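Holo prediction — T3D.
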Amino acid sequence: MSDAGVEPLVKIAQEGAVRTITLNRPKALNSFTGAMHEELAAALDAAQADRSVRCIVLTGAGRAFCAGQDLADPAVAPDMSPGAKPTDVGNVIERYYKPLALRIRAMPVPVIAAVNGVAAGAGASIALACDIVIATRSASFIQAFSKIGLVPDAGGTWLLSRLVGRANALALAMTGDKLGADEAQRMGLIWRSVADDEFAGEVAGTAARLAAMPTAALVATRKVIDASMQLDYADAISLEGQWQSRLSAAHDYLEGVAAFLAKRPATFTDR
Ligand code: T3D
């Protein structure tokens, strides 16, 4: 679908220390084109560089979060003409989705996926790459890849099996069945499914709460939890200790302890 002469493909808004980035191709269910990838990368660059940002919310405009790759994008759509060279989808993954997924997991602030509607294909993988996934009850997650002859990508295989175990991961990926938000929460795929009329408040409240917390420690928590998946128990404890050495020399630890002892709210500033 052409986006010529229309609104930005990614909208940016800020409230307090919370930066909301909205995928904005609602007519195509916010599916990814190369151009939308470029705008999203720029939005993440800007959020990373702006020290007033202490939490990012990634969401979608309209009724979907994101339907994955735009299958009609001329840059990636298969050329159906006889004898045409196949489109190498692997190149698209390397060029766009891998940097995006890695980027989200390395952001210097917590990232919330506010899944406002269907998250399909790479759209689901990108939502699951975020630190905390909150979905509206009517939202759903679809491993759409098998229906078009592909494997889950953009980190999908890695994330799915770790989040919900091999049995659930394989069944979701092979069937491509729609998984409702309540069931996704029950399975451990996401943090929380909330009633549609409470969704905006829940997302805003969680984001504001995280933004007021010790950002550097939250990001270190992500790093240690991710790293610990590859470590044995003893090495994970050592890694935790290394981070405690680093964090306990920083402002936020001293402030957190001082505030606790003085029975006052803490003001965290590290990022
Ligand atoms: O190059 C590569 O392939 C790289 C690989 C990337 C990884 C992937 O993400 S592969 C998976 C790609 N995504 C899909 O296969 C999902 C395709 N979409 C759907 O299955 C359905 O749209 C949904 C289940 C997500 C939602 O269904 P429904 O009935 O609520 O909506 P709809 O009517 O199907 O879609 C509404 C419109 O959005 C429609 O356009 P129209 O007819 O109103 O002009 C539909 O074509 C468009 N749309 C939805 N998904 C995509 C899309 N257009 C392009 N690409 C899409 N992925």
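READOUT: The chain has two domains: 10-211, 215-262.
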